[in-house]
Amino acid sequence: MTASSDSPGTLVLAGTPIGDVADAPPRLSAELAAADVIAAEDTRRLRRLTQALGVTPAGRVVSYFEGNESARTPELVEALAGGARVLLVTDAGMPSVSDPGYRLVAAAVERDIKVTAVPGPSAVLTALALSGLPVDRFCFEGFLPRKAGERMGRLREVADERRTLVYFEAPHRLDDTLAAMAEAFGEDRRAAVCRELTKTYEEVKRGPLGELARWAAEGVRGEITVVVEGAPEKGAEELDASELVRRVLVREEAGERRKEAIAAVAAEAGLPKREVFDAVVAAKNAARDAPSAGKGLA
Q: Percent of the chain at pLDDT above 70?
């Protein structure tokens, strides 16, 4: 440790390029050169970044990733308490945003250690701006659960969210995720799949969720950010019987009993429970006569 002081040091969260290295903020090079300790999600990627920027770090470089975040945090906090300037960088974008960093920030704040940031590129904001969807109000949902039931449950929680939704997703799960979104939000809900942002093969695919799910089934590669339009303003007159049944099915698949699902959908739509119940019974009868017409009801 090169730093030694009676006063605490500073934790610096530094944004790194999400694709094009030319997007690196000017302060990043200076911080990389001056830090006493650089905590990097991937030290090999850090090495490539510093080489591209023409920077030679003078401080100690340590790894800080999901697997060692809990164990390494106390060590970094002690360095900060001793007066060190600790720079935290992740593979791309801002630390703590679906990346390591939260534990270290929380621990530093608990010890009254100064925390600052070098603002940089953000896949969330870049995708939001490029999506063509409303940007005045939005919420970031990060990565969805991998298991189908848990994923559907999480989507159900925000099915009526009016704000634009932003998600990260792995390319090999994108088709399943978009299909689940189409089921939970409706096939006609508008969305945008933003792929390889700022990189050579950048692509923004816009359209209804159902259409995007069919497109993704052919296979998609690269870093993915999904932006989904918020739910339209609710109104009883807008919800036909098929939509009421769909909402009940979504809740059932997430683990709710049918009685509770019907009650919840009725409350959301501002309708009597009997009206939703009758729609479900009618769909169940239709399924008995033509199974494909009421798939999911039993």
A: 93
pLDDT in tens, 6-32: 689 999 999 999 999 999 988 999 999
Per residue in 68-100, pLDDT (tens digit) is: 999 999 999 999 999 999 999 999 999 998 888
Q: What is the pTM of this model?
A: 0.75
Give the Cα separation of 106 and 66 in Å (integer).
16
SS (H, E, C) the chain: CCCCCCCCCEEEEECECCCCHHHCCHHHHHHHHHCCEEEECCHHHHHHHHHHHCCCCCCEEEECCCCCHHHHHHHHHHHHHCCCEEEEECCCECCCCCCCCHHHHHHHHHCCCEEEEECCCCHHHHHHHHHCCCCCCEEEEEECCCCHHHHHHHHHHCCCCCCEEEEEECHHHHHHHHHHHHHHHCCCCEEEEEECCCCCCCEEEEEEHHHHHHHHCCCCCCCEEEEECCCCCCCHHHCCHHHHHHHHHHHHHCCCCHHHHHHHHHHHHCCCHHHHHHHHHHHHHHHHHCHHHHCCCC
pLDDT tens for each residue of 111-133: 999 999 999 899 999 999 999 99
